[in-house]
Amino acid sequence: MRALNEDAMPDVVTVYSRTLASDGENGQQETWTTVRATTVCRLVFAGNNPRYEKAIEAAKIKAGEAYLVSFPYGTGVAATDRFVIGGVTYAIVSDTGARSYQMAERFLCRKA
User: Fold this and answer.
1) Of the four listed, 31, 32, 88, 110, which is most buried by Cβ atoms within 10 Å?
2) Closest CA to 37 of 13, 73, 71
3) What's the number of domains the chain is made of?
4) Does position 8 have pLDDT exceeding 70, yes or no?
5) Which domain holds residue 19?
6) What is the pLDDT of residues 37-46, one digit of tens each?
């Protein structure tokens, strides 16, 4: 069933994870490292979906900037990661929570 779900994920994505390192002046500098060179996903606009209204509000992003991304279950994407589709970078804002018989990992995101 999960394999069929992946067939409905037409976008190819590169996933990046944030790493913090000392900047030598009591601060930190962030860098983004490739976690997954390529995997599939599905990106859809979520701004007009009442199901995600409270999550969009809590994330303090405008409804017109909210997207929902679905990755295959078990991909290992974290809520702090970023990803690039077609040259556009998106930042994950929060996950949508685990469900029983989970077919995909879903995250609320915005353009970075």
Assistant:
1) 110
2) 13
3) 1
4) yes
5) 2-111
6) 788 899 999 8
Identify the residue whose tokens are 């995909």: 104
Q: Name the β-bridge partners of 105.
A: 71
Handedness of CA 44, 69, 48, 89 (dihedral sign): negative
Report the distance separating Cα 13 and Cα 92, nearest Å: 13
Higher pLDDT, 11 or 53: 11
| DSSP E strands, 46-99 | 67-72, 82-85, 88-95
Which CATH number does the domain housing residue 89 bear?
2.40.10.270
Tell me how far apart the alpha carbons of residues 9 and 12 are, in angstroms, rounded to a whole number: 8
In whole angstroms, what is the distance from residue 73 CA to residue 70 CA? 9
The overall longest dimension of the chain from CA atoms, in Å, is 51
Residue with tokens 């994330």: 59
pLDDT at 90: 95
